[in-house]
């Protein structure tokens, strides 16, 4: 678990915006973290500490998963792989379709960047319903790799996202929970 001091600082920094982008959503704005380089470094150190020695590569989910994911990978001295929304990466790509509240979406990664047998950390800023993260994990498994860990800054406990990740038998970590 993260140090209480870090949790408190983040609680004071992350802004809650009610009814954005649609009524009923409590949007967690992490952008104030980037106004404070020292706090950013503490967040990275905490996430790196969770994954040290446990993964061969980091996959970040577009786009806020890149903000911390690349720094985590660099500190761990392992590759970073982009998971993007459909149509942004040039071919060849591997795709995974998943359901949204209304309709569906597709995420993709460049074929061959995740290697068979690798232990992967999937990172995103926030775990909500877990739909996007679950699709990212399926993308990892399609390439013969294993999801060893999931990490997030924030977990939203009422949305039960963690349950969607149970089947991957991976460690799940978030610094703070709402
Ligand atoms: P989900 O697939 O439902 O777990 O959604 C995860 C993605 O949606 C994350 O990449 C978040 O960046 C974004 N997201 C979902 N809910 C919120 C929220 N309440 N505040 C900020 N970002 C959110």
From TrEMBL:
Its EC number is 2.4.2.7. GO terms for cellular component: cytoplasm. It is an enzyme of class 2 (transferase). Residues 48-158 form the Phosphoribosyltransferase domain. InterPro entries: Ade_phspho_trans, PRTase-like, PRTase_dom, UPRTase/APRTase. GO terms for molecular function: adenine binding; adenine phosphoribosyltransferase activity; AMP binding. Keywords: Cytoplasm, Glycosyltransferase, Purine salvage, Transferase. Gene3D superfamilies: 3.40.50.2020. GO terms for biological process: adenine salvage; AMP salvage; purine ribonucleoside salvage. Its main location: cytoplasm. It catalyses: AMP + diphosphate = 5-phospho-alpha-D-ribose 1-diphosphate + adenine. It comes from the Bacteria. It is found in: Cytoplasm. Pfam families: Pribosyltran. Pathway: Purine metabolism; AMP biosynthesis via salvage pathway; AMP from adenine: step 1/1. Belongs to the purine/pyrimidine phosphoribosyltransferase family. Homodimer. Catalyzes a salvage reaction resulting in the formation of AMP, that is energically less costly than de novo synthesis. This is Adenine phosphoribosyltransferase. It comes from Chryseobacterium arachidis.
């Amino acid at each position: 678990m993260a140090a209480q001091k870090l949790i408190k600082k983040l609680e004071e920094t992350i802004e809650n915006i009610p009814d954005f982008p649609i009524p009923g959503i409590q949007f967690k704005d992490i952008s104030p973290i980037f106004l404070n380089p020292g706090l950013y470094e503490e967040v990275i150190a905490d996430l790196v500490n969770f994954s040290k020695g446990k993964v061969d590569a980091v996959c970040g989910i577009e786009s806020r998963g890149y903000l911390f994911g690349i720094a985590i990978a660099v500190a761990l001295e392992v590759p970073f792989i982009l998971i993007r929304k459909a149509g942004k990466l040039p071919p060849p790509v591997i795709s995974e379709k998943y359901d949204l509240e209304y309709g569906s979406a597709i995420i993709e990664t460049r074929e061959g960047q995740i290697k068979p047998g690798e232990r992967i950390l999937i990172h995103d800023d926030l775990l909500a319903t877990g739909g996007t993260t679950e699709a990212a994990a399926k993308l990892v498994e399609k390439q013969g790799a294993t999801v060893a860990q999931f990490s997030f800054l924030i977990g939203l406990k009422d949305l039960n996202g963690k349950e969607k990740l149970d089947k991957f038998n991976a460690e799940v970590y978030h610094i703070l929970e709402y």
